[in-house]
Amino acid sequence: MTPMKAVVVHGAGDVRIDERPRPEPARDEVLLAMEWGGICGSDVAYWRKGASGTAALSHPLVLGHEVAGRVAALGPGVTGLAEGQPVTVHPAQLVGELPERLAGRSNLHAHVRYLGSAAHTPHTDGGFSEFRTVPAAQVRPLPDGVDTQSGALAEPLAVALHAVGRAGGLRGRTVLVNGAGPIGSLVVAAARHLGARSVCAADLSAASLAVARKMGADTTVDISRGEELPRDTDVVFEASGAPAALGAVLRATARGGTLVQVGNLPGTAEPAVLGDLVTREITWIGSYRFVDEIDDALRALRDGLDVSPVISHRFPLDQAERALAVAADPASASSKVMLRLGGPVTV
Description:
alpha/beta; Quinone Oxidoreductase, Chain A, domain 1; Rossmann fold; 2 domains; seven-stranded mixed sheet; six-stranded parallel sheet; 20 strands
């Protein structure tokens, strides 16, 4: 079989560019020639710790779930797609039946195979490879005018749109996003796109705040300089995942307002000041991945939402370890780090 290159994590601190056989599409599958991939925090976690949350490596895993490319071949039974067509991928595949009480909330199903995830054994290889077969049902064609680099960001943009949807309509409401990393900056863009009256972003990093401004933030708060969060904000998105931030974030939320927890909080006990949750009668809700908002993300990209400011670095596939190191290093001032999976790096 024809070999291809893939970014494979073998254990903590051990990522390699392996040669693997180029796959062939089975019935109802599509072979994709991958072009771009975005590095996510889970990819960094598998590389640094050999685990992401409770999902631990038991054998090598191809990384990557933020990907886009072009259709290279169609398996038997696939219709509605054409060779050469630019596409992205919905990375989630349900295992078994969705319980009735979770109707419409497939992201909460206990058994989901996600690209680039070690949650199941055998693991579900991701898309950081030159080619990847996926079920046709998970393929999403890119709209005219949306290139594959932007298409690879449809998945994290879908996470942001799901978070915004959890808050209800934002039109005419004030918004604060605490944590201006890639997801936080995409929440800024989503809130602006969906009609928020004003959007403020807060972070410890001046570089991250500069990205948030390019993504549509009206104002920013540099916490490292002692600046305080604004008060009485209608909707607050907590995207840092830092328990120490919760007290200030709750205080910034208006009485009767809504706080959406987007950043992953640790699974261990951590001190946090939560008194305002009760006395200000705040609605505090979680947001996890997304359902079908990747389709909303593609429509937003089609309608002109520009996600390119969130991209800070681009590397070829062969430099995947360097790319992971840049994404993991706060001193690098990185935002979204992209891998060129096929062809030369272009800017």
